[in-house]
Amino acid sequence: MLEPKKIIYRKQHRRRGAFSGTAKRGHQLAFGFIGLKAQSNGELTARQIEAARRAMTHSVQRGGKIWIRIFPHTPVTKKAAEVPMGSGKGTPEYFALAVKAGTILFEMDGLDEPSARIALRLAGYKLPLKTKVVTRFTH
Predict the structure, then answer these.
(1) Are 118 and 83 in contact, with CB atoms under 8 Å apart?
(2) What is the pTM of this model?
(3) Other CB atoms within 10 A of residue 39 CB
(4) Closest CA to 35 of 93, 127, 97, 120
(5) Nearest to residue 105, comparing CAs of 88, 77, 126, 84?
(6) Which of 129, 130, 110, 104 is nearest to 35 (CA)?
(7) Is pLDDT at 139 greater than 80 in this prediction?
(8) Max alpha carbon distance in the chain (Å)?
(9) Quick one: which of 11, 25, 93, 121 is 20 to 30 A from 73 by CA?
């Protein structure tokens, strides 16, 4: 799964204020001819990204090239069950990222368009966001 090799601070704020608005960068295809674009705002975890990647790879039978355009940098903490209030912040449990509407999540190349579309749609089902498949010619 995706996680940073090194982090300066073990615990961070989750940037939940970043859930509004649209993406100002990372909103156009850069590598492949077809991609999966987020239509809504939300938070993605490393597990969700990995599940989507596996669905795509399985669908195309290891053909073509896949680019993951997002990375979960933010550690999300959680307190243990039945811990009293106070006593600080919980321990880091997983890594996540805030996604704005319009962000390109995945890109593909080296496949015919129908099979790439199917693979990206399957990946979109694994994510808790509304997504759409875009090509280089129809943004």
Answers:
(1) no
(2) 0.91
(3) 12
(4) 120
(5) 126
(6) 104
(7) no
(8) 56
(9) 121
